[in-house]
Amino acid sequence: MKKIVLLNIVLALALFGNEHKFLLSLKGTYTTSTRFLHNIDNPNVYSESRSITSNFGYGADVRWNILWDRFFLGFSTEKISALQTTPVIYPQFDHLRVPYTEGFELLAFELSGYYVVPISSEQIQFYFGGGFGAYDGKRLFSVANVNAETISSKSYMGIHVMTGIDYQIHSRIGLRFEIKFRDPHFDVGTKFDQTFVNYLGHQIRLPLEETVKVNLFGVNYVGGVVLFL
C-alpha cells in the first residue's frame, strides 16, 4: 500500500508540478584510463604499473532543488568494469603465449552539490559542481584461465568536480552530458590456491600473493536521459 501511495505522489508531481524540483537520470559512463599499481610498497611503484583504457559503466543519479533555484543536491551510484587479456610469452616453452587477464569491478557512491550558472535558459542548463565519494571494488585476475582469489580489500574516500549540460527536449524529458574529474582507488590482495597450472602440456608457475592498487585516474565522461519531476 505504501509503495502505491508513493508511486501516485511521484506521478502527480510529474504530471501536474509547475516547477522541476526533482531530477532523475539513468546514465552510461566511460573512464579514459585505469592504472594497476603492482608492488605498492616500492617507492617507485609507477615503474610496475599497467593501464586499461576502456572502462565502461552505468548508473543512476537523483538531484533535488533546495535552498534556492540555482542549487541542487544530488546522490549518484555507478558500476564500472573493465577486463583486458594480454598474452605473456614463455621463451623456455618454444615461445608459448599464456593469457594473463586483468580487470576490475568498482561501485561508486557520490554526494554532490550543483550550481546552475546564470547564462542557462529553461531549455539548456549549464552547471558545475563537486562533492565526496565512497568507492569499493575488486580485482579480476587470472593466468592461463585460472582465477586468483581475493584475500584482502581496502577502500578509500575521494573528492570530485564536474561540469555538464542538461538539454530539455520535452517538458519532462531531457538529455545530460557531463565531464567529471576524480581519482578513486582501492587496494586488493590476491593469491592463487595452487602453485602451477598445466597449460597446453606445460607447467606454468602462477604468480605469488600480491597487493595491487587499482586507480581510476582518467577523465569520466557521462551521458544519460533525465526526467524532470
Any overview of this molecule?
The protein has one helix at 2-16, and strands at residues 22-31, 34-37, 49-52, 55-65, 71-90, 96-116, 124-143, 146-147, 149-155, 157-168, 173-182, 185-191, 196-199, 202-205, 210-215, 220-228. Helix content is 7%, strand content 66%. The protein has an eight-stranded antiparallel β-barrel with strand order 1-4-5-6-7-10-11-16. It has one helix and 16 strands. The chain has 229 residues and is mainly β. It starts with a helix and ends with a strand. It is elongated. β7 and β8 form a beta hairpin.
Low-confidence parts, pLDDT < 50 over ≥5 residues?
A: 1-18
Distance between the termini: 22 Å
Helix/strand order, N-terminal first:
HEEEEEEEEEEEEEEEE
Overall structural class, as computed from helix and strand content, comes to mainly beta
Rg value: 23 Å
Mean pLDDT across residues: 88
> Which quaternary structure do these chains form?
single chain
Helix content, binned percent: under 10%
Put the structure in a nutshell:
The protein is mainly beta and about 230 residues long. The chain has one helix spanning about 1-15; strands at about 20-30, 35, 50, 55-65, 70-90, 95-115, 125-145, 145, 150-155, 155-170, 175-180, 185-190, 195-200, 200-205, 210-215, 220-229.
SSE inventory with pairings:
Elements lengths: L1 H15 L5 E10 L2 E4 L11 E4 L2 E11 L5 E20 L5 E21 L7 E20 L2 E2 L1 E7 L1 E12 L4 E10 L2 E7 L4 E4 L2 E4 L4 E6 L4 E9 L1
Antiparallel strand pairs: 1-4, 1-16, 2-3, 2-15, 4-5, 5-6, 6-7, 7-8, 7-10, 9-12, 10-11, 11-16, 12-15, 13-14
